[in-house]
Amino acid sequence: VTCVEVVEAYVERIREVNPLINAVVKDRFEEALQEARQVDKLLSESPGNDYLEEKFPLLGVPITVKEAFSVHGMPNTSGLVNRRNVIATSDATVVSRLKQAGAIPLGVTNCSELCMWYESSNRVYGRTNNPYDLQRIVGGSSGGEGGVLAAACSVIGVGSDIGGSIRMPAFFNGVFGHKPTTGVVPNDGQFPNARGVRTSFLCTGPMCRYAEDLEPMLRVMAGPGVNKLKLNEKVSLEKIKFHCMDHDGGSIFVSPVDKEILQAQKKVVEHLEGTLGVQVQRVAIHKMKYSFQIWSAMMSSKDSDGQEAQLFTDLLGDHGKPVWPLWELMKWLMGMSSHTLPAIALGLTEKLMKLNPGGNAKLVSMGKSLQEEMEALLGPDGVLLYPSHPTIAPRHHSPICMPFNFAYTAIFNVLGLPVTQCPLGLSSEGLPLGIQLVAASYNDHLTLAVARYLEQAFGGWILPGKV
């Protein structure tokens, strides 16, 4: 099989499926085919494949990239109407590294407005639909990536995650996603990029259909940062100390965990205990009940230099006039706003957060205490099993009625822990189930190893029947 044939097959698949799911918002098919021809030429002229495999570990692999990342010649709007004419003149660091490793970008994929909502819909590109049920969301903000991978339109993809933006789309679309330990993979070249304290919370990471692809992709994306991890260490699954939490303890802000998600998690526990002979320890970490409040307070806190976090309202005004959220809400009600309702609502709630500095300080302190508790619990050999989200992929628009459900993923951003999202088959309605695998900082190798194991046990990605 030639590289051109592989790329042509994926191009054809995108052309067939994208009118239904609207995941790829701008393609670069001609450039990709030209790059594939160069790969075939290189392979025909190369004396030995070992050299090529070492130098170009992803040679000829078709990839897709979240539109929030700069890909030379591609739009870089992050779903913001005022940026609709912005074209990237360079590549984000991770995109450059993937290209240098031989990967071939096919195009860029949809996200939520300014990457701060868990439905990938905006006024530039419209809404992305879930391949398992077009009436359901793909999640966000890396939702286009989740959808494109689930629909077999791409092999691997680039996502970013400050509140679950890799893991929620991976969960809703039945694929694998990894939020690395904070500070391992560079975030340069995406819009919006993190500033102040948020640089410790934003993570760039891989999304894949197959668990075995996470590690080689992570190695390339991390570059020299990979030395902080222990990816060369052999993992003995029988020696991992497994912990399990069924829910956050009953937060009033978050939906109860769906019975089928709990059932899937129970099957994982039974399988680990029955097959590996391990004892999965049930834990109840009280502070997890305040996940949403802790995430919100830490996101709006000052960094060690006293720098304020960038206001979302300021980002909404990028490439345009300043935005007044209340005025935008009035315009939205009259059908005249160029912004989405979730973005306007976030601008409004941001103002409210400023009204209670004392309460925020207590929550930041609670977050730091939770981080210490979690690191002590997990230690050098622990993995926590935790629900990915309280509900299976919701219907379009319904997240606005349960806006804080992302707390199940978001808490791990502010704790800085590595998390792998792992699919666990389909629900009774044919929608993906899954689980989060969490380890202590720099123990990404543990969650990746468990993900590979669970893929074998539970089947991993399943091709959607309708697309």
What keywords describe this structure?
13 strands; 15 helices; 13% strand; alpha/beta
Strand order of the largest sheet: 1-3-2-6-8-7-12-13-11-9-10
- Profile the largest sheet: 11 strands, mixed
- Shape type: globular
User: Which sequence of SSEs, written as H and E, runs from N to C?
Assistant: HEHHEHEEEHEHEEHEHEHHHHHEHEEH
**Mean of pLDDT:** 94
| Beta-strand percentage range | 5-15%
Unreliable runs: none
Structural class: alpha/beta
- Let me know the number of strands: 13
Per DSSP, the total helix count is 15
Distance between the termini: 25 Å
What's the helical proportion of residues? 25-40%
The value of Rg in angstroms is: 21 Å
Report what the structure shows:
There is one protein chain. The protein is α/β, with parallel strands linked by helices and 467 residues long. It is built from 15 helices and 13 strands. The strands form 2 sheets. An 11-stranded mixed sheet has the order 1-3-2-6-8-7-12-13-11-9-10, sandwiched between helices. Helix 1 runs antiparallel to helix 2 (29-45), helix 9 (291-299) packs across helix 13 (357-378) and helix 9 packs across helix 14 (407-415). It is globular, with a radius of gyration of 21 Å.
